[in-house]
Amino acid sequence: MTEQDLQGFNTLGLPARARALYVEGEADARILSTLADAGHEVFVLGGGSNVVMCERPRHLVARVGLRGIGLRREDREAWVIEAAAGEPWHDFVAYCLSQGWPGLENLALIPGTVGAAPVQNIGAYGLELDQRLEGVVAWDIQAARRVELAPEGCGFAYRDSLFKRAGAGRWLILAVRFRLPKVWHPVLDYPDLRTHPALAGGEATPGAVFDAVCDIRRRKLPDPALLGNAGSFFKNPVVPAVRAEALRERFPGLPAYGQPDGRVKLAAGWLIEQAGWKGRRLGPVGMHERQALVLVNHGGAAAADVLRLARAVCEDVRARFGVELEREPVLLD
Ligand code: EPU
Question: Which of 17, 115, 185, 260 has the most CB atoms in a 10 Å sphere around its CB?
Fold first, then answer.
């Protein structure tokens, strides 16, 4: 266990130094449990794309380096693919396509690792991870044992799971198993995708959906390699239907999507834009000029700058719409 500079390991590019341990196998996971047992507070870090790092975190950071992808089994209906937690997510999606295992293309270009994907139940362009999941292999840091969880056991909800609710010190995801149906149906519910030139006209293919998703993301979302960010900084707020109706009466342009449970999801990006924060800066950070939901580091920011802007945005959205925004990235402190 050594102290490490973690600025290159968080996509917001915030300066941070912490004690860190590199986990490459179950033996390392066991060491982590011993350290946790001895009183060290553990924080499991994947690709660092959904985290706000404080400068001197007290946590011991477990950096996940587990690698490997393979076809675990197949039946008449589906391929079951297993990927180790440390595999970069986008490369994994692209690899599956190249092997003739489509089904994850709507989730192309999401930053981060395979192991982090179930933690926040990543989702984009009409597809959520839990719709393609066969199971999760995880190390229970507290109990020092390996467990296999079926999707029903993972407590998935919008951008949420049992792993996220337990905090970053309880579960170390070792591998994720995906069930990819052999009969492929394109998921084209998202309007920008349906009408994308790569898909208009001819028949939709997995490759065309992949290309269209990559193109839409590249146009809307800043590349963390060029401009530090952690993707959507807030969740889209989900409110009771009556509340959404009242808001829509006052603000007819507010995008709102009915949820299976009867509640309504509001577009946080729209609320933030209307509150005047799109493209606006506060010190070295700001809300992105093309997607107001994405907080960006224009250079030299630290965690305190990020949290100050997040507070200001929340306050303005609350004052104007009476809606509470919830931060999506977790805090490493
Ligand atoms: N909007 C605005 N102004 C903005 C941004 C958005 O008015 O600055 C409006 C859009 O016009 C649209 C609505 O808000 O009507 C929704 O916007 P968008 O389609 O860009 O998606 P989002 O709800 O802002 C979510 C995910 C993204 C995901 C996209 C596409 C969350 C928190 N974010 O964003 O995920 O890529 O849908 O499915 O659910 C991420 O989590 O990092 C992420 C990028």
Answer: 115
